[in-house]
Amino acid sequence: MSDILIENYVQQLNDPETYTDVHAAVIDLVMSVRTISKDQLMVYLQKAILTVLLDSTEDSTIEEELRSSIDSTVKNQYININTLHSVLHSINVKLDVFGMEIAESRDMDTSTEILYSFINKKGTGAIQLSTKYTQNDIQLVKHVVDRIFAPEHVLQSSVTDAEGNILHRITYSVPYMSMIKHLRNGPEQLDDEDMPLMTKLSFDESELFLQDLELYGWLELYNDCFTLSTRGLVELKDFLIKTYGSYPDGTISTCFGCKDILTRGCACPNSSCNVRFHKDCKNLFRKSRNTSACPNSDCDADIEDFYSF
């Protein structure tokens, strides 16, 4: 009996004009955790739907079935990825007027895993509009982002091949102590009377500020190096492309497979080639082709020789 109730309710959720307690529960969750995997969100969505139905029924038999389903790990046949997409679409329609969105992206290391993040999508200075920080803090955030994406930092690594040629190697990771030193040095004081005077941070203050950015979900510490998190990449996408530009004219790399911005992955060893992949996307691409040649027709590199960054 409960299956009929669930099926009918899910059909209501497919209406883009519908906004229910389930929608409110989903947005509350994503706002609180900031980023969540598709699998985790699907589990939560099912429990939310079943709980809403449980609260609305007075039939003891249906109530017992729903309670059993809530406690079960078995996926309900009527609650699937299409249900999630419908719910998120309705939520995003409501959020659009505020310049907010629950956006889909891919995990940097396991690109087959879909993530959802609550982000600010306003194009006019996402940093300033989407944070809890002061004007001074905002300048420091930009200073941190600049350390990751500015050309002199992205292209600072190089190797020498067998013929003695120097080959540039991109990197978007900043060692822990290097980032603290960079932050302590601080951004240049802007020539603006409306801007407060920048003060230098101590070691402890710099460390706490970076930890706060990590806690907020913008930075992540990977192998003792700082880089922008998946949520940070999604939220700051427009800002990053506008400020630093996309390869080959800028420093922002996108995955050849899924087209998302990436800060960790694999890159063609040919310095003049702009092909980059998430590691999983590279493996999927390789399996789908009968050749290991770089997908760039003007490049003679082998995809198996791509280096990690």
Features:
zinc-finger; globular; Nse1_RING_C4HC3-type; DNA repair; 13 helices; alpha+beta; Arc Repressor Mutant, subunit A; three-stranded antiparallel beta sheet; 46% helix; 309 residues; Aspartate Aminotransferase, domain 1
Q: What can you tell me about this protein's structure?
A:
This protein is 46% helix and 13% strand. The radius of gyration is 23 Å and the shape is globular. The chain has helices at residues 2-13, 21-33, 38-56, 60-71, 81-96, 126-130, 135-149, 151-154, 176-185, 203-216, 230-235, 237-244, 279-287; strands at 35-37, 100-106, 114-120, 157-160, 166-169, 174-175, 219-222, 225-228, 266-267, 276-277, 307-308. The chain has two domains: 1-120, Aspartate Aminotransferase, domain 1; 135-308, Arc Repressor Mutant, subunit A (Orthogonal Bundle). It starts with a helix and ends with a strand. Helix 2 runs antiparallel to helix 3 (38-56), helix 2 (21-33) crosses helix 5 and helix 3 (38-56) runs antiparallel to helix 4. A hairpin with an 8-residue loop joins strand 9 (266-267) and strand 10 (276-277). The mean pLDDT is 88. With 309 residues, it is an alpha+beta fold. The longest helix is centred in the first third of the chain and has 19 residues, at 38-56. The protein is built from 13 helices and eleven strands. The strands form four sheets. A three-stranded antiparallel sheet has the order 1-3-2. Strands 6-8-7 form a three-stranded antiparallel sheet. A three-stranded antiparallel sheet has the order 10-9-11.
